[in-house]
Hints:
In chain A, 3% of the residues lie in helices and 56% in strands. Chain A has 180 residues and is mainly β. In chain A, strand 10 and strand 11 form a beta hairpin.
Amino acid sequence: xxxxPLVFIPLLxxxxxxxxxxxxxxxxxxxxxxTPQETPLFLQQVELYxxxxxxxxxxLFAQQAQVFEKDELTLLFKVMANxxxxxxxxxxxxxxxxxxxxxxxNKFMTxxxxxxxxxxxxxLLQTETLYYDQNSNRLFNHHFxxxxxxxxxxxxxxxxxxxKKGILTLLKPIITVLEQ
Amino acid sequence: xxxxxxxxxxxxxxxxxxxxxVYAESAKITSDKMLVDKETNIMKLLGNVFxxxxxxxxxxxxxxxxxxxxxxxxxxxxxxxxGKVVLHEELDIVLCEYLNFDDSSxxxxxxxxxxxxxxxxxxxxxxxxxxxxxxxxxxxxxxxxETEASFYREKPDKNGNRMPINAWAxxxxxNRPLGKLTLQGGVRILDESDGSTMNAERMDVYLNxxxxxxxxxxxxxxxxxxxxxxxxxxxxxxxxITEIITxxxxxxxxxVGEAAVxxxxxxxxxxxxxxxxxxxxxxxxxxxxxx
Lengths: 180, 291
């Protein structure tokens, strides 16, 4: 099923749940396990698009989606996404995960499972939980993260990636420079 | 040389660091924070940067480390370390406040109270510019200041000590393939084994393979003061293997209790107690009478 063009999150969500997520501290956003009671709407082969100033800024593909309208919750499975660079000619940032969860309509997504972010060719971030906040243009977490590049392997305690500026910040990194 | 190997490139910036193989090494680096700019390919490590070269135990410490890779080849092209930079590899220690290297020019620049020692040699200055491929460089002093260097003779002195020979000069030129350090600009030397001093406009210091002192060639207004004698000449060669000093060009020697002599060439023992060996066209210029 294809929504095109589709404003990324809002069309999938009801309106009044946004405050719920906004009021949660960042650390808790992955622990607020919601157990939806309602029967979801099942979707297959979902594509979502986000446009900014008539330019496609995000394209997201999921093999499956479950939409819980009352709970303002959308679960996505086998997710792949492309974040277009703001600068012309800039490389897109690609990320994928086993699952993604969108709560409310605040443009905030939680990616879980095997989460991978391809910053550029041969440079891959791996973690188990990652948040994507479209409002602040950042991917972030407070979880163990690895960055695997051609020349180094990095382990860090948390990450923040400014998708607009293309700046990745890793805290407490341990970098292993790989043999050539 | 694997120039993209960040830690090795930094270490290679230290002119006298070991001749150990630089291939197939790996390093581990930690810091408080790491920033990667996806667009520019710049990686910055901030706060308590510590790098360990696995194979040798060599370490790098700094407050910040910045590394830039080529977007085309992903090879390391530029790096800099700032804030109490300490490189330690076996006996080699390098201290400075700021260090950068550019892999296109193979030039490393170290600044701010630069201190380099290999165990056998000690160098101190304000700025070191070093080509780590050619292994040549220049150590500068602060304006109005001096660079410092210390060397050691291969063998201990008669008391069994290896006392340093300390030198000061406006700048020091390093030529590692030739094992040569050129000190120039108001060069002064103090040999702590006997308290002798030497002055000249320029001195070439030649080192043995183990970096012990082999020979000093002094040019321009050479003057030497030793316990019991003084000498001067246009040029002097101090051979630390044979322990012979050769003065050439308006050579002058005055030993206590002896008449001063002047010659175009005078040879003498380094040990002032052993005195002069020979002089060509020896001409006595003064007579000292003892009563």
